[in-house]
Design brief:
Length: about 160
């Protein structure tokens, strides 16, 4: 049986270190509305997009220039019945040298077609990785969601973000 987790891959001319650094610059490709750390093992960050999506992630694996893994600790979607579909899933970035280029293989382990959010999440991750992160790596500037201000204070209290 084939793996149904969401995956996508990009190949760039830049070095594995440049790809690794860009991945960890989450505000440069995913969203300027990220609160918390995004670079060191055990860092916890909160992603926010309007009142539509919030996600609390923990950095559980960091292998410089090779691999980054986030564990989704908590999640909220306003547009589906099971608001917590991502909870317990892993977001994995694997970096490898291939034929003189650098390959980034992205997997959202646990994001499967059975999820109500799969189609929209597939579309979102495809854009963030193949467009925004790719541009950050290759041109030095990604296309993250702009800073909006005003995290949902009730969810912030519930998730108790560290100061």
């Amino acid at each position: 049986m084939s793996n149904k987790d969401f995956t996508t891959t990009i190949v760039v001319d830049q070095s594995p270190k440049q790809v690794f650094d860009a991945i960890n610059n989450v505000r440069g490709w995913w969203s300027e509305e990220i609160e918390g750390g995004t670079e060191k093992l055990n860092d916890i960050c909160l992603y926010h997009y309007k009142d539509v999506h919030m996600s609390k992630m923990k950095l559980i694996e960091v292998d410089p220039n090779k691999k980054v893994v986030w564990l989704v600790l908590d999640n909220y979607f306003s547009f589906i019945k099971d608001e917590t579909e991502w909870v317990g899933t892993k977001v994995i970035f694997e970096i490898a040298e291939k034929d003189g280029k650098t390959q980034l293989h992205f997997t959202h382990e646990g994001l499967v077609p059975q999820y109500e959010c799969y189609d929209i999440c597939n579309e979102g991750w495809t854009n963030y990785i193949r467009n925004s992160l790719y541009k950050l790596i290759t041109a030095g500037k990604g296309e993250p969601n702009p800073k909006e201000g005003g995290f949902n204070s009730e969810l912030l209290k519930k998730w108790s973000m560290p100061a």
